[in-house]
Specification:
It comes from Blastococcus saxobsidens. By secondary structure, the chain is an alpha/beta fold. Helix content is 32%, strand content 14%. It is elongated, with a radius of gyration of 30 Å.
């Protein structure tokens, strides 16, 4: 059984992936404290990103190597500088993984080159993540898949053909279990751009579990995603939004992550295993209080049923109110006291 299978299966709470990303702000102590805070929320996993700036881009001032001026968060910044600031130092990884495991969390990471995979393998990384922008890097996907470990693949920006190619590359290279994450690769993302209907399309098209990698503010979108069948939710997490940081606009603080864990579990439970109608567990007493036909005045034999002596009232026990047209005008066969539930025997009707 894979490391993900028991977390994704059945009707239990969805898998919550707490993404540290750049929210260590260059401090190992902050990274460790964030792991402690994540563990206290009930999230099951913590995810890192394993890269060096050199594995992401060139140390160049050229326009193609800068974030576009219109970008809401990082406009004009050099890619190399951004990745150097945001990266998690390789020398921290062993301590981060050990600390997460000590806190009962499953640690895993997104590698961005072969060196990152090699480092993560040395730490017995149980699961790998492919970031949205790397979904088209089929050689990287094959390198990760060759470990035989489960893979979680984000699908932001990807066409169905690109997703199919990525899954085929992973399977062809010997991957373990595969999970797709519906994703909008905008930072932050507008909830209206989430297109949660994609979850069902991905599940039906590729026959794999599907979750959500979410960059919207708050928890509303992921809770809705779980109600639509998402088996996992990935959100960036930080200790304190006021401290800033490159991911602060779309990260949750620990209290919000705890809310996410609780509300996603509620959403999963609310959907349940499938449709069910009629009286459900917990409704028995309310069902006992449904209306039925009751005798409301003392009657003598021969008096006929009418609104002056029979009414539809709570609780249940008498004939159904829907039978009113069948009983009105019928004579009582014997004396009946007020407060008696109406039944056919009172009207002299013998039932087989």
């Amino acid at each position: 059984m894979s490391a993900l299978a028991p977390l994704l299966g059945g009707e239990g709470a969805p898998l919550i992936i707490a993404e540290l990303s750049a929210n260590h702000d260059g401090s190992l102590e902050r990274a460790l404290a964030t792991i402690d805070a994540i563990a206290a929320t009930g999230a099951q996993t913590v995810k890192f990103q394993t890269y060096r700036a050199e594995s992401m881009t060139l140390d160049s001032d050229g326009t193609p190597f800068r974030i576009s001026d219109g970008h809401g968060l990082w406009a004009g910044r050099r890619l190399f500088d951004l990745y150097r600031e945001a990266g998690t130092p390789y020398e921290w990884h062993a301590q981060l993984f050990a600390h997460a495991r000590d806190r009962g969390l499953l640690p895993f990471s997104s590698p961005f080159d072969g060196a990152g995979v090699e480092l993560l393998e040395s730490l017995d990384c149980a699961v790998y993540k492919i970031a949205s922008a790397e979904l088209v890097d089929l050689p990287l996907i094959r390198t990760v898949a060759s470990t035989g470990k489960p893979m979680v693949l984000s699908t932001g920006m990807a066409t169905l053909a690109e997703i199919d190619a990525a899954l085929s590359a992973a399977r062809g290279a010997g991957s373990g279990e595969l999970v797709l994450l519906s994703c909008t690769a905008a930072y932050p993302a507008d909830p209206a751009a989430s297109h949660l209907a994609n979850i069902a399309v991905l599940r039906e098209s590729f026959g794999v579990p599907v979750g959500l990698s979410d960059h919207t503010p708050g928890i509303g979108v992921p809770v809705a995603a779980v109600a639509l069948g998402a088996v996992a939710v990935e959100k960036h997490v930080m200790l304190d939004r006021d401290s800033g940081g490159v991911d602060s606009a779309f990260s949750l603080v620990p209290a919000e992550l705890a809310d996410l864990v609780r509300e996603c579990a509620a959403a999963r439970a609310a959907v349940g295993p499938g449709p069910r109608f009629g009286v459900r567990p917990g409704e028995e007493e309310t069902a006992r209080l449904r209306r039925s036909l009751w005798v409301t005045a003392d009657v003598a034999p021969g008096e006929v049923v009418g609104p002056e002596n029979v009414r539809a009232l709570r609780p249940a026990g008498g004939l159904a109110p829907a039978l009113w047209e069948d009983v009105v005008g019928r004579p009582f066969g014997r004396p009946v006291a007020a407060g008696t539930p109406l039944d056919w025997a009172l009207l002299g009707v013998a039932l087989d």
